[in-house]
Design a protein that fits this description.
The structure holds 2 protein chains of 2 kinds. By secondary structure, chain A is of the alpha+beta class. Chain A has 12 helices and 9 strands. In chain A, strands 6-5-9-8-7 form a 5-stranded antiparallel beta sheet, with helices on both faces. In chain A, strand 1 and strand 2 form a beta hairpin. The longest helix of chain A has 20 residues. Chain A is globular and about 65 Å long. About 20% of the residues of chain B have low confidence. The chains are: A alpha+beta, B alpha+beta. Chains A and B meet through helix 10, strand 7, strand 9, helix 11 and helix 12 of A and helix 3, helix 4, helix 5, helix 6 and helix 7 of B. Strand 7 of chain A pairs antiparallel with strand 3 of chain B, so a sheet runs across the interface.
Chain lengths: ~325, ~190
């Protein structure tokens, strides 16, 4: 399917030009309903969500086991070329891409995997390129909300699970592409805060909307898109209330009374939200925020514990 | 429950108000670096009783009281509570009971190594609930703790301490006191 969708014409949307990416003009709130529709498909569903007339759709989202394998939109037909070329340093020459593409058409081999096997792309770079392309295509499909959407089931699974994405992951990718620099730092921070892969997310606040924009998520398979967006609104709302009562929160935590806490804080314009399964986990998060410098600001009773945690982290 | 409803409309009896003030006063004195403590009717945002070290702290208590209802019952709070419970496997979303936390390898820290003592004790002694029971706000100067009532969820204890206070200790004491003041308030309505 990658090979079938791979156009070799001129790109109308150069991928390095962030301003022309569909994610810049389609608000994440417009994309969320599409991704939620994918999540609402029956468990284990395989097939294609088709936009417009099923015989000649204007776009499609391919799904396997609830994960998104591919999205296609007519306006995005050739953008993948640029993304793939720029995913390698030095950039892959167009003539090389054409040659691999032709080989794949003849042999029926998957195009992306061929690029990896020939050493033209790393597996990570391919995954990143496919994720970007899929996220941007879904953003573009968000503009087709007026078209009827039908789901055409498929009996077979054709995609390597390593190159498929959860709806939540793609939602964050759309947000991240809107502000790549901030997103890179936020994702690094999440990994640093949750080295064992806990559940958390990072959000920016749009200049033009009150809605939080997710830019990073840890354990994205565990969260649904609506839950991610709820978490972002809660996070920003909690910080707003703290401001309103004259106590801008360095850290805000809400506990269920059994030691589990949802916690949120803001760093460098990014709001973080983490689900902690114990008060010890909350203490660990407190210790990791502000990279240890916060340990001097933490309440007295927690400082020594915090130093240990930070040291180990 | 009838008493709870009355609480929304009636004031405490003189005796109950005096008892509440005595407990709040003692609590303010006992909690480390405490500058104010109050019992809030979250339905109205009004303080049923309060003790503060100075007028500024009193104003801070008033502001906190007004916001308490939003902290526990804001429009996005329920959604996050449901997510939390679903992740744990006891939620309302119809998902399987398997713990997503375990699957995700969530923030795993040995409870004994870094857990605030009182907090950990409370964890082991209380059954899991599915609503937020407490909120902690660490700001530049103050530590706000909100404890929701255990018998009547419209009541909340608000504790303000300086941020240098021992969080574990403040949290533990607030958890203990909320039941006492709640009993006084619920037992003393109907004048």
């Amino acid at each position: 399917m990658i090979a079938n969708s791979f156009g070799m014409g001129h790109s109308t949307v150069p991928c390095l030009d962030e301003g022309s990416s569909p994610v810049q003009w389609v608000p994440p709130t417009a994309v969320a309903p599409l991704l939620e529709r994918v999540e609402q498909l029956p468990h284990g569903a395989n097939g294609a969500m088709l936009f417009g007339q099923p015989e000649s759709p204007s776009g499609a989202i391919l799904v396997e086991d609830g994960r998104i394998c591919w999205a296609a939109d007519r306006s995005m037909k050739t953008r993948l070329t640029d993304i793939l070329r720029q995913s390698s340093d030095p950039h892959i020459e167009p003539v090389v891409l054409r040659r691999v593409f032709s080989d794949c058409r003849r042999s029926g081999r998957p195009f992306g995997e061929s690029l990896v096997s020939e050493g033209l792309l790393t597996e990570t770079a391919l995954r990143r390129a496919l994720r970007q392309h899929t996220a941007e295509s879904i953003a573009a499909l968000g503009m087709l909300g007026f078209l009827p959407i039908t789901f055409r089931p498929s009996g077979s699974k054709r995609y390597d699970a390593r190159f498929t994405f959860s709806p939540c992951d793609l939602m964050c990718t759309i947000g991240a592409l809107r502000n790549a620099e901030v997103a890179v730092l936020a994702r690094m921070r999440l990994r640093e805060l949750l080295p064992d892969g806990g559940i958390g997310a990072a959000f920016t606040r749009s200049d033009t909307m009150a809605t939080p924009v997710p830019v990073g998520v840890s354990s994205s398979d565990q969260l649904q898109v609506s839950e991610l967006m709820d978490a972002g609104r809660w996070s920003i709302g909690a910080q707003d209330i703290s401001d309103a009562i004259g106590a801008p929160a360095r850290v805000y935590a809400a506990g269920l009374g059994d030691g589990r806490f949802a916690t949120t804080w803001s760093e460098d314009g990014v709001s973080y939200m983490v689900f902690c399964e114990s008060s010890a986990a909350l203490v660990s998060i407190l210790g990791r925020t502000r990279r240890g410098a916060v340990s001097n600001e933490l309440p007295q009773g927690m400082r020594s514990e915090t130093r240990i945690r930070v040291g180990r982290g | 429950m009838a008493r709870s409803v009355n609480l929304l409309m009636d004031q405490l009896t003189d005796a109950a108000q005096a008892a509440l003030n005595r407990v709040l006063s003692a609590t303010r004195a006992d909690i480390p670096e405490c500058v104010g403590v109050g019992l809030v009717n979250m339905h109205s945002g009004a303080l049923i009783g309060q003790q503060a070290v100075d007028p500024v702290s009193g104003e801070a208590l008033d502001l906190a009281a007004a916001a308490a209802g939003e902290l526990f019952a804001g429009r996005d709070v329920l959604a996050v509570e449901n997510t939390f419970n679903r992740l744990r496997g006891n939620g309302h979303s119809g998902h399987a009971a398997a713990s997503a936390f375990a699957a995700a390898g969530s923030v795993a820290v040995p409870a004994t190594s870094a857990s605030p003592r009182g907090a950990h004790a409370a964890e082991t002694s209380e059954a899991a609930t599915d609503r937020f029971r407490e909120v902690i706000i660490l700001s530049g100067e103050l530590l706000h703790i909100f404890q929701r009532g255990k018998r009547d969820e419209r009541l909340a204890l608000v504790v303000l301490s300086r941020v240098t206070a021992n969080l574990s200790l403040v949290l533990t004491m607030a958890r203990r006191v909320v039941e006492v003041v709640e009993d006084i308030a619920l037992g003393g309505v109907g004048r």
